[in-house]
Design a protein that fits this description.
Mean pLDDT: 97
Radius of gyration: 19 Å
Structural class: alpha/beta
Helix content: 40-55%
Strand content: 15-25%
Strand order of the largest sheet: 3-2-1-7-8-9
Bound molecules: adenosine-5-diphosphoribose
CATH superfamily of the largest domain: TPP-binding domain
Order of helices and strands: HEHHHHHEHEEEEHEHEHEH
Number of domains: 2
Shape: elongated
Number of strands: 9
CATH class of the largest domain: Alpha Beta
Largest sheet: 6 strands, parallel
Length: 252
């Protein structure tokens, strides 16, 4: 089926539910100027995640990880605004269709767009936590004139996101699994679906006999086996068109 037909199909599927959920990944923030991790222009093309995004690497040399990864990320995230993909999901919540977003992103853009129930599966970049006393400081306010930045107690600040080698907070995992098993439709937007356990959420929805709709300019491991259909396009354009179609259906 052509993209336009699939967009109309998705609008018809969504307009009848009050219980849709979205699983999002880095791709939804690409149009906000935040690079993805994998693929062309991806961050892991430039740096080795095991050397800079693994908890062992951070513990061994926090200054190195701050200098190569965290400082740049701070600048990129602080300049980013929600795009049409984020805004489309906020609109779906406003229309009473979308309940929750499970996001692998740490950029806070879903909340900035207006979604009120966002599970930050991989934590958040909005806050830093002192590794000694646990004091929290907003990332935008942390003093980076010295790297790594230090808390008043002398401890090192680390972002409150999940590094490779760290566990997903158990409450996030359990709630996401529960939501994935009970939703009517899961929208899977902008994720390569290769990182577990996030990528198993659509499988839970599928196993519960419910619908999985992917939005991505590329195919993923979910495409043939799990997704009911893939709308092959960029999140911003596809979400704009889906919202237009839903609004058209609602006035009929
Ligand atoms: N709209 C929608 N999807 C897009 C767009 C776009 N404009 N641009 C790129 N994509 C898709 C790519 O085709 C790819 O499938 O977004 C996906 C990005 O994949 P990844 O970079 O692997 O991001 P993600 O799936 O979120 O990665 C999962 O890996 O390194 C870790 O912790 C990091 O949370 C991250 C996790």
């Amino acid at each position: 089926m052509k993209m336009e037909e699939l967009i109309k199909k998705a609008a018809k599927d969504l307009v009848h539910t009050k219980n849709a959920v979205a699983l999002t990944g880095a791709g939804i923030s690409v149009e906000s100027g935040i690079p993805p991790f994998r693929g062309k222009g991806g961050m892991w093309e430039k740096i080795d995640p095991m050397k800079y995004a693994h908890i062992d690497a951070f513990l061994k040399d926090p200054a190195k990880v701050w200098n190569v990864l965290v400082k740049d990320m701070k600048e990129i995230v602080e300049q980013a605004d929600p795009n049409d993909g984020h805004n489309g999901l906020a609109k779906l919540e406003e229309l009473g269709i979308l309940k929750t977003i499970i996001t692998q992103n740490i950029d806070g853009l879903h909340q900035a767009a207006g979604n009120t129930d966002v599970i930050e599966f991989h934590g958040t970049f909005a806050w830093q936590k002192c590794m000694d006393c646990g004091n929290r400081c907003e990332t935008s306010k942390v003093d980076i004139s010295r790297i790594p930045p230090l808390c008043d107690c002398g401890g090192i600040y680390r972002p409150e996101c999940i590094f490779f080698g760290e566990a997903i907070p158990v409450d996030h995992l359990i709630r996401s699994q529960d939501i994935a098993s009970k939703c009517d439709i899961m929208l899977v937007i902008g994720t390569s679906a290769v990182v577990q356990p996030a990528s198993s959420m659509p499988m839970i929805t599928k196993q519960a006999g419910k619908k999985v709709i992917e939005i991505n300019p590329e195919r993923t491991p979910l495409t043939d086996s799990v997704s009911d259909y893939l709308i092959m396009g960029k999140a911003g354009h596809v979400m704009n068109r889906i919202i237009e179609e839903i609004e058209g259906l609602l006035v009929l």
